[in-house]
């Protein structure tokens, strides 16, 4: 009986190993699909038209093509019944027209004193949000272990991905995203205990964390960012060490799921619109 049980256990292990190997081998590149859902709200039609005209989802689809996934992941642009949100659930990343409409409200009329172009205050947070939700998908698809809050980990992975792009583009993305976080801080009351208890960090924390990660990655390129985000000097002093910790985790947990040869081609392309590119603005 014991020999029979051992034999059955051995067969079970062989089957399990085969299934695991098959699942791993099935992971492949170019697994992101896209869909533009025509808006129900007429106010969102210009957003739909502009993003479709500029092939925004197609560009993101290609940008994410080096990541290996076991099954398709859909990137969906749609209306959310008045909810300004973005989310990942059930193999779908949903970006709401209402979220993009909100980003328009933060666009400056002209280049800021820090040299941030209006277009970057829309494109930066938009790309950051898509990559944040994509990070959640990576954690889910590959059962990646996480220490700490998943939302913070998704922020770190998102930033690390676009820090791999061309230096000018990564700076534009980071600066535009930090700008929007800082405006959110100005437009809202100081956080209360309810907000501190949320699974997401506050806008203040996210701006500082992003600025620190970027500065740690390239202190020369982002030399002015800590001051812009009001990062305390004691935190600035450890940003490079912080970045190294994040980079080590990324190399260990995320890079095995990337086709590096394809990534080297894709990430170094120019993806962003021209700095003076006209963008949608909120109606008066």
Relative strand content: 5-15%
Work out the count of structural domains. 1
- Compressed to H and E, one letter per element, the order equals HEHHEEEHHHHHHHHHH
Number of strands: 4
Biggest sheet record: 4 strands, mixed
Q: Which word captures the global form?
A: globular
Give an overview of the whole structure.
This protein is of the alpha/beta class. It has one domain. Helices cover 56% and strands 7% of the residues. The chain has helices spanning 2-26, 45-53, 56-63, 97-105, 118-141, 150-162, 167-187, 193-196, 203-217, 225-228, 233-236, 239-253, 260-266; strands at 32-36, 73-78, 86-89, 92-96. A four-stranded mixed β-sheet has the order 1-2-4-3. Strand 3 and strand 4 (92-96) form a beta hairpin. The protein is globular, with a radius of gyration of 21 Å. Residues 14-23 have low confidence and may be disordered.
Quick summary of this structure?
With 284 residues, this protein is an alpha/beta fold. It is 56% helix and 7% strand. The protein contains 13 helices and four strands.
Keywords:
284 residues, alpha/beta, 4 strands, 56% helix, globular
